[in-house]
Inverse folding.
């Protein structure tokens, strides 16, 4: 398959036709409709944009899907919820940047309702299904973005990440999920889950594609390593409580890397601090909305979040700064830290929610709390996909390390 850069270069030099690229993407979306990865196809809009394309831009002619949490002018704005039935009044800034770079938005991708879940199973149209095994979940909340890239619908999709929502589905679907540092990609007109933790990110087939896309949408992200990076491997036991399938792939992947053990900030404190920041902000964002048509798990999550005391929220804000400083210190000693992205391969769609959430969220939440760049890379595995997470001080460092690891295969 061509890279994002190759597609855009081909459109710019006239060897590739944006109309053909769009038609291929629309056709493929129809072929995998049963996965629920794409919740709305803007067939007429995409065809019109392709026919009128001026063949310019870093993303010239590249078909893109946008998570349905992100407002796109004229398209349904439902956030995966039966309780919401709006139409986008204007493009979110990230959509404007996509169009300015020459990308063609072909439609909207599935989200766990209001992004308040890490499984991708709760949505007005039903669960998103994993392209590697439709009986299994994609992870979430950027479920459709990961599934659509994995299934070959588009080479680039936009997602959001509050506790791992780009990286978790990337890991379970076998693609790359890049959550850049906080504020790199704008979150205006993106339905908020937790403003302190929300990030906008990209999903692609390769780290090189993700780096190229970030460079096009936010400015320079690429950096080249002239020597092998100094990598820290997490030693906190909570990050390594993986299933045997993940353990085999993880062990084989890290054997090829030059690693030094590092200890990340205390897992329990970091996890509870992030939860105590997220909860009250989520409750505030849904205050005044009629919630009786929300998915049961999202209603339950909001109920639990409402129990977080104001004092706990204020303490979490203080603790977040301290934990960030602790991770900064770790990252001064190494070029990046690597961990498994999630502790399991894709669970069955009907798996028990509480245990699955723990396995999916354990390793991703820290980088949202500290707002550092983090990337999930697929690593060789027998059977279902497995992800390796890179956490770095800057987008450039995360991109360079991710591309370097990718090149070692």
């Amino acid at each position: 398959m061509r890279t994002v850069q190759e597609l855009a270069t081909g459109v710019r030099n006239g060897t590739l036709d944006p109309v053909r690229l769009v038609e291929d993407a629309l056709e493929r979306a129809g072929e995998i409709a049963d996965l629920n990865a794409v919740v709305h196809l803007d067939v007429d809009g995409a065809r019109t944009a392709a026919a009128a394309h001026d063949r310019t831009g870093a993303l010239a002619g590249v078909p893109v899907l946008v998570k349905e949490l992100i407002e796109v002018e004229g398209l349904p704005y439902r956030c995966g919820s039966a309780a919401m039935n709006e139409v986008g009044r204007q493009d979110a800034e990230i959509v404007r940047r996509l169009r300015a770079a020459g990308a063609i938005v072909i439609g909207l991708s599935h989200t766990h309702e209001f992004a308040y879940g890490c499984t991708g199973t709760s949505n007005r149209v039903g669960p998103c299904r994993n392209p590697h095994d439709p009986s299994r979940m994609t992870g979430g909340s950027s479920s459709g973005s990961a599934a659509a890239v994995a299934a070959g619908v588009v080479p680039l999709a936009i997602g959001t990440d509050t506790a791992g929502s780009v990286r978790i589905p990337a890991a379970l679907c076998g693609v790359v999920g890049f959550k850049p540092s906080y504020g790199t990609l704008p979150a205006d007109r993106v339905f908020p889950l937790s403003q302190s933790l929300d990030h906008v990110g990209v999903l692609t087939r390769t780290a090189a594609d993700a780096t190229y896309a970030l460079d096009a949408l936010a400015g320079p992200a690429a950096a080249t390593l002239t020597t092998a990076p100094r990598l820290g491997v997490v030693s906190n036991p909570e990050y390594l409580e993986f299933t045997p399938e993940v353990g085999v792939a993880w062990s084989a992947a890290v054997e090829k890397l030059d690693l030094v053990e590092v200890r990340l900030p205390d897992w329990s404190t970091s996890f509870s601090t992030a939860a105590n920041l997220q909860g009250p902000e989520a409750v505030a964002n849904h205050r005044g909305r009629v919630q009786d048509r929300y998915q049961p798990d999202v209603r339950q999550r909001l109920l639990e979040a409402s129990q977080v005391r104001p004092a706990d929220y204020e303490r979490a804000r203080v603790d977040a700064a301290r934990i960030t400083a602790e991770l900064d210190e770790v990252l001064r000693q190494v070029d990046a830290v690597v961990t498994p992205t999630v502790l399991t391969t894709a669970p069955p769609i009907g798996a028990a929610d509480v245990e699955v959430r723990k396995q999916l969220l354990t390793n991703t939440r820290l980088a949202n709390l500290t707002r550092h760049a983090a990337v999930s890379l697929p690593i060789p595995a027998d059977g279902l996909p497995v992800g390796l997470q890179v956490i770095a001080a800057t987008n450039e460092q995360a991109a360079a390390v991710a591309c370097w690891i990718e090149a070692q295969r």
Notes: The mean pLDDT is 97. The longest helix spans residues 310-333. The chain has 14 helices and 15 strands.
